[in-house]
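Hi V.,

Quick status before I head out on leave. The structure for the redesign project is tokenized and pasted below; the design run finished overnight.
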């Protein structure tokens, strides 16, 4: 029977994996090998995908993928456990120079005798990025879901007289060239040839993690294992004979706890000892792949020996011969480029492959994977005494609620609502304090600097522009605090799990949901996170729809206008805007899948990590890291943009008798806005709003600072005019023909429950509530900032995708804003 036929609570043993290609290889590398016991834990709320338990961890598969795995119900005649043969029979010491260490000659050792380059290689969720942060002092984000590290990070630090350069490579389950992460890791190990590989393995799930270790053993580069999260193993009551495991694998092993720094000094000292060739615990071994495969390797060795001198030095000869036997395209191309007799080997290889597969009854890749898991199982049988399964029980209890068929979606939407409610409501208090401070600074500077251009530049341009954006720092911090908690706890992977069927309906993958949720913080890392999606078409679609997800840079726009125009329904309006972006992303994905891309049923294979309570330090560091980036913008692009906007709106100076509104219209910026205004008039956006949208191309926060500069100067001038003339009646229009006057004073702000971002006393008399709503929708949907466009070009691979994003998104923004303005006009 097939795995998809099992019901919740049932278990069985895998007989074989059907199909071919990258999916088959990937799930075998994750442990779906012959004889392995697999249990059905639960179904997603929409009955697809399904969560399975395997080797002490959880993984989700769609029913269509589970139907490709043949199983025998536990206790059946063909049911048996995976081969747990004695690990001592599973390896041999290296011989014939086949496990020679890759030489440190990529860049030469001259001048870097005391500089050590290390590469962190490990499974997703192994704590690799946490270790990188602990070693390098970097503040890279650590997320508890697969694929969080989508590119290599580089850091540097010193330890006991040595300079370390450390690379945090993407999380990967193997070194097969079937995903961007695997290709990236293999190329890094090939091109950089690190002095020492640090294999990061989660102590709480050694059986799954050690498969990658067997891959690294094969390539025979210098290596040490960092057995991370060792405290979880100890707390479970399990015991591990570290020295015995070192002997069996030939790899020095150091227990560490990255989050509190435990074991890091010993780890680095071991790296130094390996680098200086004085580590007695390190030796290279052969994993025995069985008589048939070993005989085939022997015959290949006899034939290929003539070109051993031409073999690449990055990996061991045995590894290259094994991959050649498996038909690895990457290795085949590598050997074909440098080996004169390469053309003579292929017929022999094909003959050997046919003979071995006939003898074994399975393909070589399957046999090799099975032997590796057999080696791992045998090693752990001799060295590991299992403990309690408290963490698994806790995870199961939580999942029973958050992935329940009835409660799963309500819990998800409740968490989203709480996130936005907290962002708006809790942020209002520190916003008021910061805005008061900005006003105080503006008044102080205004009292010191005499009236004139410099005075206006400092008060209206710099303080008014930058201050109008910095007041939203508390909201940004709260938003990132919520996102960070969901990522670090492991809930984000569950959100992808319950949303997979919904994503599948629009032609995407459950993994696409993670980059989209990350986009709530910033579209750029969300776009980059799409690399974790194996399918190129699904990856490109995810990249293109990511800008429709409202990032934190747009949040100040919404808070400013909802506080001014919708104070009683701010949270509802805010959620509606975010929902609009999500709906447009879904419709666009469906359109792209049905027009530009063929249907691509990307397999949904994703690990569901155990829940972990994030530490306050980790969450706070991530939150502050994003806040620091926000503050950097204040002194960078937003400061420059505020000055530029002020200059363009300040000059040319007005003629005698010209009002502030007339001067603003006649300024250089006003002329640009008036030129574009006919295109925006049908959607109710005044020319100042148009100018703000254009200025927001560089960074969306500039939209708010532009409005702050434009309106603060005009409001101050109008206030002076009102003071000199007869007092106007309450609510009177400043400009003829405009019958809406929004004057956000301090009392109104308190009543609204949030600060008006443009500043106290600022008058936006040329806006209507319907126009403000259209503006927010347009700001949500039109093309993203320059940084996001650059990310689209890099990840999608070409300027045509950037051009498509600019044209399509802007067109969609105008059409949706027009529809809202036109329909809303029927009721207002």
């Amino acid at each position: 029977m097939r795995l998809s036929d099992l019901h919740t609570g049932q278990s069985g043993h895998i007989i074989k994996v059907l199909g071919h290609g990258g999916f088959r290889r990937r799930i075998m590398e994750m442990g779906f090998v012959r004889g392995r016991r697999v249990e059905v834990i639960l179904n997603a709320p929409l009955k697809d995908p399904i969560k399975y338990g395997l080797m002490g961890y959880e993984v989700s598969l769609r029913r269509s993928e589970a139907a490709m795995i043949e199983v025998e119900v536990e206790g059946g005649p063909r049911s048996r456990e995976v081969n747990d043969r004695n690990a001592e029979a599973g390896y041999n010491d290296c011989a014939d120079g086949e496990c020679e260490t890759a030489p440190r000659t990529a860049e030469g050792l001259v001048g870097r005798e005391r500089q050590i380059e290390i590469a962190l290689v490990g499974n997703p969720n192994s704590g690799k990025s946490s270790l990188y942060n602990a070693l390098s002092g970097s503040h890279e984000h650590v997320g508890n879901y697969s694929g969080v590290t989508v590119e290599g990070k580089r850091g540097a630090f010193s330890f006991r007289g040595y300079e370390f350069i450390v690379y945090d490579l993407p999380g990967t389950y193997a070194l097969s060239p079937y995903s961007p992460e695997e290709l990236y890791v293999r190329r890094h190990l090939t091109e950089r040839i690190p002095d020492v590989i640090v294999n990061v393995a989660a102590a709480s799930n050694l059986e799954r993690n050690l498969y990658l270790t067997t891959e690294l053993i094969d390539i025979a580069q210098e290596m040490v294992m960092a057995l991370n999260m060792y405290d979880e193993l100890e707390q479970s009551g399990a015991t591990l004979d570290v020295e015995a495991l070192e002997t069996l694998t030939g790899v020095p092993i150091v227990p560490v706890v990255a989050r509190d720094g435990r074991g890091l000094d010993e780890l680095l000292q071991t790296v130094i000892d390996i680098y200086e060739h004085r580590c007695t615990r390190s030796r290279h071994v052969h994993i025995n792949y069985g008589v048939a495969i070993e005989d085939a390797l022997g015959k290949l060795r006899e034939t290929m020996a003539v070109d051993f001198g031409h073999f690449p030095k990055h990996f061991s000869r045995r590894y290259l011969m094994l991959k050649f036997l498996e038909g690895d395209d990457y290795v085949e191309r590598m050997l074909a480029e440098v080996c004169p007799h390469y053309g003579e080997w292929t017929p022999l290889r094909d003959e050997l492959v046919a003979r071995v597969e006939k003898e074994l009854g399975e393909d070589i890749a399957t046999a090799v994977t099975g032997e590796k898991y057999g080696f791992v199982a045998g090693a752990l049988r001799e060295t590991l005494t299992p403990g309690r399964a408290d963490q698994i029980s806790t995870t199961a209890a939580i999942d029973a609620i958050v992935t329940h068929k009835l409660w799963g979606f309500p819990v998800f939407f409740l968490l989203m609502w709480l996130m936005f409610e907290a962002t708006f409501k809790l942020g209002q208090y520190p916003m008021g304090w910061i805005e008061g401070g900005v006003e105080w600074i503006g008044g102080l500077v205004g009292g010191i600097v005499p009236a004139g251009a410099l005075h206006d530049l400092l008060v209206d341009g710099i303080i008014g522009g930058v201050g109008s954006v910095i007041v939203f720092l508390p909201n940004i911090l709260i938003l990132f605090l919520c996102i960070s908690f969901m990522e670090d706890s492991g809930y984000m992977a569950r959100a992808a799990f319950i949303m997979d069927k919904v994503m599948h309906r629009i032609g995407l993958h459950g993994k696409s949901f993670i980059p989209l949720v990350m986009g709530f913080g910033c579209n750029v890392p969300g776009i980059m996170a799409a690399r974790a999606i194996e399918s190129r078409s699904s990856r490109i679609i995810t990249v293109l729809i990511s800008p429709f997800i409202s990032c934190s840079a747009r949040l100040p726009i919404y808070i400013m206008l909802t506080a001014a125009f919708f104070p009683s329904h701010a949270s509802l309006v805010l959620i509606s805007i975010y929902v609009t972006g999500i709906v447009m992303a879904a419709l666009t994905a469906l359109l792209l899948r049905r027009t530009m891309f063929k249907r691509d049923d990307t397999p949904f294979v994703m690990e569901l990590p155990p829940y972990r309570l994030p530490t306050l330090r980790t969450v706070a560091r991530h939150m502050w890291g994003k806040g620091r980036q926000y503050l950097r913008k204040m002194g960078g692009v937003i400061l420059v943009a505020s000055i530029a906007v002020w200059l363009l709106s300040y000059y040319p100076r007005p003629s005698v008798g010209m009002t502030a509104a007339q001067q603003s219209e006649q300024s250089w910026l006003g002329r640009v806005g008036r030129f574009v205004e006919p295109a925006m008039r049908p959607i109710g956006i005044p020319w100042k709003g148009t100018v703000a949208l254009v200025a927001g191309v560089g960074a969306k926060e500039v939209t708010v600072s532009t409005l702050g500069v434009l309106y603060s100067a005009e409001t101050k001038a109008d206030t002076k005019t009102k003071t000199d003339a007869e007092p106007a009646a309450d609510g009177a229009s400043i400009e003829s023909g405009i019958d809406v006057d929004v004057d956000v004073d301090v009392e109104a702000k308190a009543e609204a429950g949030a600060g008006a971002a443009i500043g106290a006393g600022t008058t936006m008399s040329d806006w209507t509530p319907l126009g403000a709503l259209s503006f927010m929708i347009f700001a949500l949907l039109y093309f993203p900032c320059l940084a996001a466009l650059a990310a689209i070009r890099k990840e999608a691979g070409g300027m045509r995708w950037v051009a498509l994003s600019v044209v399509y998104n802007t067109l969609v923004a105008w059409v949706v804003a027009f529809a809202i303005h036109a329909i809303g006009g029927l009721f207002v």
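Above is the designed sequence. The chain has 34 helices and 18 strands.

G. will cover questions while I'm gone.

Best,
W.
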